[in-house]
TrEMBL record:
Chain ranges of the AB hydrolase-1 domain: 27-290
One term of GO molecular function: hydrolase activity
Annotated source species: Centaurea solstitialis (yellow star-thistle)
Full protein name: AB hydrolase-1 domain-containing protein
Entry's family note: Belongs to the AB hydrolase superfamily. Epoxide hydrolase family.
Top-level division of the source organism's lineage: Eukaryota
Length: 381
């Protein structure tokens, strides 16, 4: 993991920790972590995409991991995390990214794409797909009343809390405590860590959360799930993302225990994310990226490589690819001996296809002209 660099970016009077690997000139992949995770959760994926020629950046959200805790963590919102994400990209002069998000990071990623569609080349989520606001309430697994979860977590040191959360959330049952229990009581002290999560991994998480505590993490996502964050005049029936999208999920993820989730993935989600592909990993838990890193890495790379050209396209948000590019008067002057005409189909394109994009175009051919007609025949009018 020594290849990954660590920097801090000043955003809204907070120093936000950002892990990074890869060349600054390479296409960028933005990784967004989930609940009680930090940028470290993406260690396997960041190195893999960097080795494949991409730049990987992964922030710790405000109040998470090595990032500063806001003055009032109980006021933190999804809107803050989205604004921080955009500010980080602006600070690094990154204009367009692929987003890979886990757990509630999917919500950050999809809200980001709603506000900044021009910055999104494609989106991959793990653990949680896009869900409309009205469906999010049932994802509540921790108590929302102020102070209760804080008191529960406060009975243990940071390392024990992270250990219990990883054990709980790697199971296939929804981790909800009864009225007479607290969420931490659902895990026995003797319960082993998942085989793919080492004591060294746990120590890394513990060191980060000893610094940040859990106040912000308990506010976002759990007390912010019903927060509506959308642009003015947003059409609730319009797709959230039309860019290519992928959802990778384990079939043993507790997410599937929530009512109606399988049916939603089989049909309802297409209304919001029409270009979505879903891949199921039969033995996968909520942490498929850590449980099966090589399998997940290959899925991510397949998506990134097949859509890499989208990072190079520059067009306005919601651009209609079938609409004219220019309706103003236009002129194309070309020499008939220009090598351009040696490319297959060019003459036919100029005779008809181009009118779709530039309907008011006039074309003038200079019989002896080369590719440099402006220097070859400067006096011709």
């Amino acid at each position: 993991m020594d290849q990954i660099k660590h920097t801090y970016i000043q955003v809204d009077r907070l120093k936000l920790h950002v892990a990074e690997i890869g060349s600054e000139s390479s296409p960028t992949v933005l990784f967004l972590h989930g609940f009680l995770e930090i940028s470290y959760t993406w260690r396997h994926q960041m190195i893999a995409v960097a080795n494949a020629g991409f730049r990987a950046i992964a922030p710790d959200y405000r109040g998470y991991g090595l990032s500063d805790v806001p003055a009032k963590p109980e006021k933190t919102s999804f809107a803050d995390l989205v604004a921080d994400t955009a500010a980080i990209l602006d600070s690094l002069s990154i204009s367009k990214v692929f987003v890979i998000a886990k757990d509630f990071g999917a919500m950050v990623g999809y809200i980001f794409s709603l506000f900044f569609p021009e910055k999104l080349a494609g989106i991959i989520t793990l653990g949680i797909p896009y869900m409309p606001p009205e469906a999010l309430q049932q994802l509540q697994t921790l108590p929302r009343e102020p102070g209760r979860a804080e008191a529960d977590f406060g009975r243990f040191d940071a390392k024990t809390v992270v250990r219990k959360i990883y054990i709980l959330f790697s199971r296939s049952e929804v981790p909800i405590a009864s009225e007479s229990q607290e969420i931490m009581d659902l895990v026995e002290q003797s319960a082993p860590l998942p085989s793919w999560f080492t004591e060294e991994d746990l120590d890394t998480y513990a060191a980060s959360y000893q610094k940040s505590g859990f106040l912000t993490a308990l506010q976002v996502p759990y007390r912010s799930l019903l927060e509506r964050v959308e642009p003015p005049n947003h059409d609730p029936n319009a797709p959230i993302v039309t860019a290519p999208a992928l959802f990778v999920t384990g079939e043993k993820d507790f997410f599937f225990s929530f009512p109606g989730m399988e049916e939603y993935l089989q049909g309802g989600i297409q209304k919001y994310v029409p270009n979505l592909e879903i891949i199921y990993l039969p033995e996968g838990s909520h942490f498929v990226h850590e449980q099966f890193p090589e399998t997940v890495n290959q899925l991510l790379l397949n998506f990134l490589k097949s859509n890499k050209s989208l990072l190079e396209r520059v067009e306005p948000p919601n651009h209609d690819p079938n609409a004219p590019i220019v309706t103003a008067p236009a002129l194309f002057v070309t020499g008939e001996k220009d090598f351009f005409f040696s490319f297959p189909g060019m003459e036919e394109y100029l005779q008809g296809g181009i009118q779709k994009y530039v309907p008011n175009l006039e074309i003038i051919y200079l019989p002896e002209g080369s590719h440099f007609v402006h220097e070859q025949f400067p006096e011709t009018r």
